[in-house]
């Protein structure tokens, strides 16, 4: 069994279009949520979003290629190229057949779908764009990343709604651990801030209706009332420890465990007792070979919906036990980015890795009124410095998909 480490990071987010900008925003408690600009959401009472800002695809890739990609693919490719550069992997020295891609999306090319369906209705069936299908299908973020980077190993896309990015990281970890690849580009990407994406979630009464960006995404606050849509991508280069040491790579951290479970409860609501998420957390800890007392940090799914935040609080207590649950630092960085759906677990994995590396617990901003049902240590307002060893990253998706990854601070080898 190979140990698996993280050697590269890449991100396109509402807080910046690089890992450096993103992490700086996270640890300083900066709010990346702002007034909605991509369309007028007045009719559905939606006013804010976690939009990617200042992104120009041509800065990352050929203009012609970019035009053949939906934004979710553009974001994924841009983040992957940053992660590859950061990792220092040279495919002239590494067998490209041993470098794979495992990058998911919850919805896929929703902008292409919306635009081309409107075009078809207005101008006729024969006016649909030739590249509509490869722009729309969800696997093309992984396909385009493979083409852009030269990766020829396992090339897969996982679709588990809001757990897609974290499931992708977990499955990529197992792919390396069991010897099927030496390195994997893993994560998730999403670009669903458009009329049909937002209207669909608004119809479920799932979105925040606040006009104030600082009162919209309020995880674990008593007055939370819905999530804020975000967009972007996060990509990690996972690599076998053997490969990383052989090429003297910079190592950010280690991934030590993964748990994936199903609630078998409801299409959109989590199991109220948190049992499904708790089992995923326990599985991640078991594979890591650690006790609940050894977990120092949890990056919670923390969507800011009434049901999720209570259920996840119960899940943490069930998984760790009441005493350990009250000792662990918890944050929902969705308070600063909004909810990236299939990309959420990926950018939050980056947060978890950086938190362990630097000994900084990121804050949960916007908690104004405590909720008796959410009674754990949610690291309010400002970051906290402390020595950290293990962190869990929780992602919970529609359909009852639960994914939890466990990361460990990297200690230099003796």
Description of the molecule:
- The chain folds into 2 domains: 4-246, Thiolase/Chalcone synthase (Peroxisomal Thiolase, Chain A, domain 1, 3-Layer(aba) Sandwich); 257-409, Thiolase/Chalcone synthase (Peroxisomal Thiolase, Chain A, domain 1).
- The protein is 35% helix and 19% strand.
- The chain has helices spanning 19-27, 63-67, 71-87, 110-123, 132-136, 140-149, 164-177, 195-203, 241-246, 275-288, 306-320, 322-327, 334-337, 344-358, and strands at residues 4-12, 34-35, 48-49, 99-104, 155-156, 183-190, 232-240, 253-262, 295-299, 329-331, 360-361, 384-385, 390-397, 401-409.
- The longest helix has 17 residues, at 71-87.
- The model has no long low-confidence stretch (mean pLDDT 97).
Outline:
This protein is of the alpha/beta class and 414 residues long.
Keywords, separated by commas or semicolons:
globular; two-stranded antiparallel sheet; 2 domains; alpha/beta; 414 residues; Peroxisomal Thiolase, Chain A, domain 1; 10-stranded mixed β-sheet
| Structural class label | alpha/beta
Shape: globular
Q: Specify the helix fraction band.
A: 25-40%
What CATH architecture label of the largest domain applies?
3-Layer(aba) Sandwich
């Amino acid at each position: 069994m190979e140990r698996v480490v993280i050697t590269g990071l890449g991100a396109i987010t509402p807080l910046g279009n690089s890992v450096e900008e993103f992490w700086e925003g996270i640890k300083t408690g900066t709010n990346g949520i702002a007034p909605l600009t991509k369309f007028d959401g007045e009719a559905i009472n939606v006013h804010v979003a976690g939009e990617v800002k200042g992104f120009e695809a041509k800065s990352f890739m050929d203009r012609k290629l970019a035009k053949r990609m939906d934004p979710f693919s553009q974001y994924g490719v841009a983040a992957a190229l940053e992660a590859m550069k950061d990792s220092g992997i040279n495919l002239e020295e590494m067998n490209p057949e041993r470098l794979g891609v495992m990058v998911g999306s919850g919805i896929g090319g929703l902008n292409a779908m919306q635009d081309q369906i409107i075009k078809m209705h207005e101008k006729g069936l024969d006016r649909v764009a030739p590249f509509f299908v490869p722009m729309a299908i969800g696997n093309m973020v992984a396909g385009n990343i493979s083409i852009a980077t030269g990766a020829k190993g396992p090339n897969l896309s996982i679709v588990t709604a809001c757990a897609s990015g974290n499931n992708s990281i977990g499955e990529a970890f197992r792919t390396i651990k069991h010897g099927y690849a030496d390195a994997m580009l893993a994560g998730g990407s999403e670009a669903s801030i458009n009329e049909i994406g937002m209207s669909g979630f608004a119809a479920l009464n799932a979105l925040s209706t606040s006009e104030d960006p600082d009162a919209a995404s309020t995880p674990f606050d008593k007055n939370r009332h819905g999530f804020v849509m975000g967009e972007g991508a996060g990509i990690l280069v996972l690599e076998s420890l053997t490969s990383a040491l052989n090429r003297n790579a910079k190592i950010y951290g280690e991934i030590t465990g993964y748990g994936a479970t199903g609630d078998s409860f409801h299409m959109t609501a989590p199991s109220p007792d948190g049992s499904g998420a708790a089992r995923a957390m326990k599985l991640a800890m078991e594979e890591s070979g650690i006790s609940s007392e050894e977990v120092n940090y949890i990056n919670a799914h923390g969507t800011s919906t009434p049901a999720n935040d209570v259920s996840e609080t119960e899940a943490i207590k069930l998984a760790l036990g009441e005493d350990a649950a009250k000792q662990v630092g918890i944050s929902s960085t969705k308070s600063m980015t909004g909810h990236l759906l299939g990309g959420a677990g990926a950018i939050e994995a980056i947060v978890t890795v950086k938190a362990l590396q630097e000994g900084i617990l990121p804050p949960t901003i916007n908690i104004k009124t405590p909720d008796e049902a959410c009674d754990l240590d949610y690291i309010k307002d400002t970051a906290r410095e402390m020595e950290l060893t293990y962190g869990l990253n929780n992602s919970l998706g529609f359909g009852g998909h639960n994914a939890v990854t466990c990361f460990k601070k990297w200690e230099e080898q003796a």
